[in-house]
UniProtKB/TrEMBL annotation:
All copies of domain GmrSD restriction endonucleases C-terminal, residue ranges: 73-161
Molecular function GO terms recorded: endonuclease activity
Alphabetical keyword list: Endonuclease, Hydrolase, Nuclease
Pfam families listed in its UniProt record: GmrSD_C (PF07510)
Source organism, top-level taxon: Bacteria
Record protein name field: HNH endonuclease family protein
Organism this protein belongs to: Streptomyces shaanxiensis
Length: 187
């Protein structure tokens, strides 16, 4: 993990002019004809017990594990799909310089699992736009997984990290002996 942290470019965050609408998210997903947007596709992919898909891609039933807070959920409406690296964080870490198309690709990244994660709405809203210096999952036993996925997402998209973020990631790496970071650069 420490080796991966050293690959993150160090830069101060610049959140000037950030607007959530700069990232077109929850687009038509992999199959534009099935009526399921990116959010629904993540929920379907992460369901431990698959929900029934009703007309308009409404999900009924199903069961999910929210790893951030170690909770089972049985309603799709109780889940949020979290951007591992929040949109505002991505913006301040380099996405402000991207094209609208690249920001859309980032916000709907179904190619790599940790980019988008189905978690309880409460844990996602607790996290908000914060980086690991400001927020780690309340389920402490998953901190190493979360840190690895955070780093992998930043590296996948070529995003920078500020000094406080890197300091926290380094502390996490020390506590996560043997944890690895694997990533595939985004196209």
């Amino acid at each position: 993990m420490a080796t991966a942290i050293n690959l993150l470019p160090l830069a101060a965050e610049a959140n000037d002019a950030y607007q959530r609408t700069s990232f077109r998210h929850w687009n038509a997903g992999r199959n534009p004809t099935d009526g399921c947007n990116t959010r629904a596709e993540v929920l379907l992919a992460e369901a431990v017990e698959r929900p029934q898909i009703l007309p308009g891609c409404k999900l009924s039933g199903g069961r999910w594990w929210s790893y951030y807070d170690a909770k089972w959920l049985t309603s799709a409406s109780a889940l949020d799909v979290d951007h591992m690296v929040p949109l505002a964080e991505a913006w301040g870490s380099g996405a402000s310089q991207w094209t609208a198309e690249r920001r859309e690709a980032y916000a709907n990244d179904l190619a790599v699992h940790p980019s988008l994660v189905a978690v309880s709405a409460a844990s996602n809203r607790s996290k908000a736009d914060r980086d690991p210096y400001e927020w780690l999952p309340p389920a402490v036993e998953v901190a190493c997984r979360y840190t690895s996925e955070w780093i992998a997402t930043k590296l996948r998209w070529g995003l920078t990290a500020d000094a406080l973020e890197i300091g926290t990631l380094a502390q996490q790496a020390d506590a996560c002996a043997g944890a690895t970071v694997t990533y595939e650069p985004a196209p």
